[in-house]
Write a structure and sequence with these properties.
Three copies of one chain form a homotrimer. Chain A contains seven helices and eleven strands. Chain A is α+β, with helices and mostly antiparallel strands. The relative contact order of chain A is 0.13.
Chain lengths: ~260, ~260, ~260
């Protein structure tokens, strides 16, 4: 009988508290999810409330307003509420693997009330199959590239590394093609500044860019450093920054957690 | 006795969970609410945490800093945390119905952590009674204009339609006066792009403008299309975009719900 | 036995509701907290998810990218998710009390999904001890300067007053040095507009600046007035605006509460 009482009470309380027990967005737990809503344009979803779409033949009037090079009839689209680094890194792998170009990287102020960016990334392709392939590759990469994104209730930290930067990183950050590239992001920006300083002191790297709330970001509460150089040095700089960032962000809240649960750097 | 136990437990749990059972903002449930706080300037509140106010005689020093045409002694103000489309549409009806002009439409990055805009709209009038009337009309229209705003935990969709655009829509979007006008908004922006493409493919409409995170928005995570043309075609374009948008946004979360519960298009 | 039932049910419900009973960020309850994470750069934390840091010798490559005057080897940093007014006021006291200069005030669009700004403020100093001292003073002042920041679920109000403005207020708002200064902020911006009008009508003050979503803010949903003049008049203007603001914000939600619980004006 106690069990029945308990069951009833739990139900009552849940009702009263007004919490509907939602099925959580599956994509936000990890692997890309492909539950096709019956649209040929749909490719899949992934971490960060990211969706991947493809348009075989963009309407001419819209194509022009979007400012896309006319030679790309087809476009692939990935866009999410959380991230920008992870999606740009994933797009970089996608352009390496496919016959596409990154024609637009737009960074809204977002993260669902968090301190950073969301994103809208558009691949241009002559064939729709190429655009679709690029989106598929990018969605698949996201689980990895969200590995070193750490979040708690006060802010976030983000670290990205690649041994060989390609066109998406060149477009977004001015990264030298083919060289090792690293990205360091800290929010609130005060923490980011110290992460940046730690990184450049930890190894001989070249600073490509520094962005902060008033310049180079979409008014986010982040300090962002992009670095290039010797592959070992770039990694070393990132790892040093990560260590400091995790300690600092912990002073404002709980221990920050990796969004995918699997750090890769 | 069981009932008593249950009651006590529910109370205990609620206390422990720390959830105060708040009276929800009544205006956010629908009709404009007028609980005057004892200020002659207060007109009412409405959906989207919208408040309506009136100033009979704006202080000269502030008037100048606000950059309002000196001939308008009186101003009406509506402003909300959520929306921009709904409030601009409502303002459009207000200018049709009153002797006022829309002198400012400012769009903060807001929606309370959502992906879109809030708004601050100012009516100029020579008589305070006109300014007040404009605010009253706008607040009353909001229930309708929030009808095709759909929201879930991952984003939002917004559709607006009028058979005859007036001065607020002209000011905000460059809509041709007296012609049918439609607005299509999708967030995250990736979904918006596909909604826009669907709309222009569905009917012969004229694209007035396209906005995205990096241009034409306040860095929101939205793609926005404004269209004009034949009244039937504009509606058809919007309805097609709405169908696609609802399917896509559902892939990232629950089925999106109309904010007012009463779609009007 | 009833007690046992209750205990078990509470546990079950909490588990089901998915609410982890977190230790709240201690700094957000009041006094600066100094739980050093083992970094010499860490100074402390305070209200508004504010962190205070110091860098004794900023790396040359980063120093240049940050655009800081080369004569300042050392920097002090305060940055938070919520506030801007409180932190700028606190920084103003810090520059009065120390041998430092405010070299940067950057205002992200933030407040954790709220309607306003976060902040990143950098003090330049020739000696690291001066930079550290400035950060310590600023963190300590924050409890006071958050006293007249009022928040509810719909928006916020913020009031600041000093009898004698110093260099941080000059840099941020163009405040005349050594004169009384006041700051009035209301969100949503519609409420802010009426607060501003009320202030300038209540006393003979000089309007230094007016900011709104489209100009002078980081696209926040705020209207902001900065005023100068006779000390009594500035206070009187602020107090009148506060009274109106509290009434208006209450129409959209619960009675707004002081963030520190101790209004100072």
């Amino acid at each position: 009988m106690d069990e029945q009482v308990i069951k009833k009470v739990v139900e009552d309380v849940l009702k009263k508290v007004g919490i509907e027990q939602k099925e959580e967005n599956k994509a936000n737990r990890g692997e890309p999810v492909i539950t096709n809503p019956g649209l040929t344009e749909f490719v899949g979803t992934a971490l960060g409330d990211t969706i991947g779409l493809v348009i075989a033949n963009v309407d001419a009037s819209l194509h022009e307003k979007m400012g896309i090079d006319p030679k790309y009839r087809s476009i692939g689209i990935i866009g999410g509420r959380t991230g920008a680094g992870p999606q740009i890194m994933a797009a970089d792998e996608a352009v390496k693997a496919t016959n596409t170009e990154v024609v637009a990287i737009e960074l809204p102020r977002d993260t669902k009330g968090g301190a950073g960016h969301g994103n809208l990334i558009i691949f241009g392709a002559e064939e729709v199959s190429d655009a679709r392939r690029a989106v598929e590759v990018a969605l698949k990469e996201l689980r990895r590239t969200f590995g070193d994104v750490y979040v708690n209730e006060a802010g976030h930290l983000e670290f990205q590394y690649t041994a060989r930067a390609s066109y998406a990183l060149q477009k977004a950050f001015g990264a030298p093609l083919g060289k090792a590239f690293g990205l360091i992001v800290g929010a609130p920006a005060a923490i980011g500044v110290l992460c940046c300083d730690t990184a450049v002191k930890a190894a001989e790297v070249e600073v490509i860019g520094y962005a902060s709330p008033a310049k180079g970001t979409s008014m986010t509460n982040e300090a962002i450093l992009s670095i290039s150089g010797d592959s070992g040095a770039v990694r070393q700089a990132i790892i040093a920054a990560r260590e400091v960032g995790l300690k600092l962000l912990s002073t404002l809240g709980e221990a920050p957690k990796s969004l995918s649960g699997e750090p890769y750097i």
